Amino acid sequence: MNAHHVITICLVFASYFLNLTRVGCLILVLMDFCDIVLPLAKMLRYLERTFACDCAFVTFLVSWFLTRHVAFLLILYSTLFRFPVLRPGAFIPNSGEIVTKELYYAFNAALIALQVLMCIWFTAIVKVAWSVMRGKPAEDTRSDEELPDSSDDEADDKLDEKKRQ
């Protein structure tokens, strides 16, 4: 699921194009902050440092909530409600103001779509945290490895048959 990458890149480009660079920079900062802590937790898990891994995961969970569901919603609120008040009728091409209603709605629709994706992921993260609190090991439900293809299995079976003959 790479939709969030496409949406984020489109938002950053649109923020530059629409002269909303502060919004684009904030999106990048908020999206990248959690991406530091999760790999740290994974490395600690691979090193079998369970207590440090649990602490890093809790830090990740809190930072995810604060950056992607509190701060990001403040950005969304600002672009939805404050932008029209601060820059009404901002279509003045000679001055660099080219925000039309269609672009305004498209930009906010992309922000809302990104928030919906983040809510879905947060639900999965909370499920993992809940299972860990119940004593089960944390498992990454995403696919990090390629699954064997059925055609590969068939080819291996045919190769084994030829070796036996």
Outline of this structure?
By secondary structure, this protein is mainly alpha-helical.
General description of the model:
This protein is mostly helical. Helix content is 76%, strand content 2%. It has 5 helices and 2 strands, in the order αααββαα. It has a two-stranded antiparallel ribbon. Helix 1 (3-17) runs antiparallel to helix 4 (101-133).
Write the layout of secondary structure elements.
Blueprint: H1 3-17, H2 21-46, H3 50-86, E1 91-92, E2 97-98, H4 101-133, H5 150-164
Antiparallel strand pairs: 1-2
Radius of gyration: 23 Å
> What's the SSE pattern?
HHHEEHH
The major sheet is characterized as: 2 strands, antiparallel
| Largest sheet: spatial strand order | 1-2
Low-confidence stretches: 143-151
As a percent range, the share of strand residues is under 5%
Estimate percent helicity: over 70%
The computed structural class is mainly alpha
- Compute the number of helices: 5
End-to-end separation: 45 Å
Tally the beta strands.
2
Shape: elongated
Q: What number is the mean pLDDT?
A: 79
